[in-house]
User: Fold these one by one.
Assistant:
Number 1:
Amino acid sequence: MIYIDKYAYFSGLKEVSPPLKILFGGTALIACLCSKSFLSFAIVFLTMFYVTVFKAKIPLDYYIKLLLLPFCFLLFSVIGVIVNFTRSPLPDSCVLHWCFGNNNLFISEKGMVLASRLVCKSLSAVSCLYFIILTTPFRDIIYFLHVIRYPKTLLTLTVLIYQFIFLLMEIATVKMKSQLCRGGYRTIKGFARSFAMLWGSVFIQSYLKSEWVYKSMLARGYCGHFQLLPKEFRINKKEIALLLLFFLFVMIPNLF
Amino acid sequence: MNDIILQVENLSFTYPNRQCALIDINFQIEKGKKVFFHGANGAGKTTLFQCLNGLLKVRQGVIRLNGQIVKNERERMQFINIVFQNAEDQMIAGNVFDEVAFGPVNRGLPKEEVVKRVEQVMRQMNIEHLRNNPPHFLSYGEKKRVAIASILSMEQEMILLDEPTAGLDARQREELIETMNHLVNEGRTLLISTHDTDFSFRCADRVFVLHQGQLVGEGSAEEIFSLADLLEKANLAKPVLMEVYEKLLKYSYIKPGGLPHDMKEFSELLNNNQHEQ
């Protein structure tokens, strides 16, 4: 999973200006969240899929793996939407039902439509975010946030959290390797033991390491928030017009 | 000819971001030898080690242990182990004793056997007095010794050492060399990756050179370090003793023969030449 942000540096769209990519992903995301029509979701998802896999050249199998991750969460949450519970008589539109005495569990047509809309909406929204993540290096996202006057404290927090997540993951990955070498994780008991030892030591070490990182930042004049060199982010009128057009195009199916 | 313990045939490895790390590697290693791997940073030494030991899945190529193809990564791990470059990365337990015992316990050995092995290895690595200390707060040299001990306690035939001398002081280095000699005398095979050519010139039975994922040189230390082109290509420095020896020879301070591999041999060489003059 650690490659998720590395792809941004190698992607086929690395030359395209970062604000355009972020605004494109953002426009699509907003359009998608405002829509109700399945066609809109399909347009957004397919556009993002095309741009990410064919233009940015993210390997298809990796992209599918990434999409499956939120999809699993989605499936579980959707169960709650589909399956309804009632004590009164069943509504007419119910497709399937189970009775336990007075209590009825049922799946209605309305619930099915709602659930499938929810799934499509979430997946296409996620595809917009993946487009941004997989094509725009984190550094550029930070610059973008800086340019649009994102609060400094939050920006600093974002940068630090991002850095330390990788610190934590790096330490955990390499320690896990060293445990595998020494026969950890082979049995269920061994798994539990190794896993507990891993996190115990990862926290000690990442704490020690983060202290060094912090010291090195202090030594270079860090005083509470990150200073970024002003960088010119240009976006021309033509591009803005195209983005608006895309937004309208996605919204059209909602009219019918 | 000794037994061949490890054979690698047509091994290639590519990382998920499509970066080629190893390209068609072929070599074999005799039992009970110290074999050194050289190469610039990023040449593929660590990747090769992780492929051999099974941390990375080998999709192209064959690895034979004692003549038999071993495809399963876990089986290879039972046989070959790595001492990581950064000792800190290996520390996972609350104290040194548990750290050294981690491997044997995972093997499912009886308690008495585990304790016996751990005590023996701790004595050997001279870390008995640290047994109750938390490993994270030891000095670097101590951490390194604990890391090596935690691998030795698994009593495997082949041990890969990734940059073992990095960060050690002169005395710790001597101790490391002593430990390595001891292990080889016990019949274990050591593969060592390092940038330190003086170290390998002194200790190596055989030297391999990697360059951009390819094996570009193989031979005894003397053979390898006399190839100026190869050293240049792989960013390697010529061992100091060899350089001095050649300079002395060039200006006829000494007679040819008997290239010294450590300071003791070098003093003997100078002594002999003085007597003859």
Number 2:
Amino acid sequence: MIHLENISFTYPKSSFSLAFSSLKVEAGTHVALIGPSGSGKSTLLNLLSGILLPAQGDIYIHEEKITGKTEAARRAFRLDKIGMIFQSFALLQYINVENNIMLPLLLDGQPITKALKERCRELLKSVGLEGMESRYPAQLSQGEQQRVAICRALINNPKVILADEPTGNLDHKNATSVLDLMLQQVRISGATLIMSTHDRSLFSKFDRVVDINELTRESI
Amino acid sequence: MKNWFYLASQYIRFYKTRSVLLLTCLSIITCLPVGLRTLISHYQNELENRAQSTPLILGIRGHRFDLTMSALYFRTSLERSTTMEELEKLNKTGLVKTYPMFVRQTSNHIPIVGTTIDYFDFRDLKPSSGTLPMLLGDAVLGARAAERLGLDAGSHIISDQTNLYNLASQYPLKMNVVGVLQANGTADDDAIFTDLKTTWTIEGLAHGHDDLAKKEQQQNILSRDENNLVANANLTPHIEITPENIASFHFHGNESDLPLTSVICVPKNLKSATIIKARYKLSKTAQLLSPESVISELLLLVFKVELLLHSSFLLVGAATAALLGLIVMLSIRLRKDEFNMLHAIGCSRKTVAGIITVEWIVIATVSLLVSTAIIMLVLYAAPNIGRLM
């Protein structure tokens, strides 16, 4: 379970603040985080990943208290237990698809074994990019790039996947296709998915929809 | 660390043009001052070695640099000369062994050095093919001169015409190449050696022509007195010395007045050196120099120029370092999104810094290797560069 309680966060030198009393997400559920631009969706995802720390309150991810960890420990936790997907795909242009997918492992200093390469190929096959291991991001379409980013988020079997508007840069057809693939893969892995989105047409695909405005209003 | 290196090398490989440009700039920045310094050291050593192997030089009183450069490097610009009379006086002292030289003409712009056979022993010059010059009109080529001219023993060379517009001046002389010397890495490699009399002949102080005592030549005599015969233009001088005409070559005037541009002197011992130096200190016509001290003086002047160069290199280096710093900063700023993403997926700032550092270390190392290769190449080509200069 993911549990956030009595959260209060403000950016230094900014009037923006995010505060709510409680948010609980059951393990393995798929949550759509909605709200207008600037409402704090990305901030909440950054708090969950440990990139930001709240001024008050505690965050637990599967019994582990994130807020009690040092920055290095949070970073290690993120690398090991959380898969991140970004709106801009955030693939490294200078390494091929296979290495982009294995980037979290490369950064962790793990040796790239045959088994890992095999898992990489399986993931690519599952998102319809079979045989594209040696291609570079610039040789792929935007939809294909985001599918590679999904594979990267799943490579080390994370417990939680945080996706920040992953379909924001895609057309509707591509967005639906990518989301379906992502949900399918997350379901197979059994991970918890929290994804921020503007696209109302996608809400029906999630187990739960959390409106960030309502979340903060409840706490007032 | 292995993965840092892998990511860094992938970045360098992917952005080839950028990396090659950076590598080239760094290589030039590194090899320019170091290469120049190495080249200067090379010439400094070469100058000093040549000077140290030549104890003393005698020549006409005048500019010491010109005399030294003429005796050591066969520069043909020394207009004034000493005489055989001065050499005879020097030999009579019994204090030194002498090696007279006359260096004023060229062939294909390569200096022709007139000297005695002893000079070859003094410089330890041995022929790699053919023999040393034995007869009037014989020439032996230095190794690089032979290579440059593409000649070997058995071929011919012609001295350069000194004045194309003076019909009365001496004709160029055709000489027989009788040998090529082994290379010794000094100025001797870039010269043509002949007997002193051959250079005097080129200079016009000796000549050969048909015998005016012969009956068929009598018609060419314009006037005669006790000492001289004056012939008309029908009497053609020989422009080549052959076994048939060698006997007709002769000098006019007093042999003791024949010119020498310099005389290398090797004192028998320290005492002899001191005495002979003291004697020539007061001479109004000749000077006796120690090439080592002249070259040291010359190098001091060069070092002053080099000091200026070093100062400018320091300034350019500081400006370049600032520019490099700016490039690094801009490169990091351009890649900010990439680093933020890496941080977001769990990469530490230390790892990011490590990857950037490895990228720069790889580029700097390759630049250093390229610079070293260029410097080695410059050192290898140094003698040829020196000749071009």
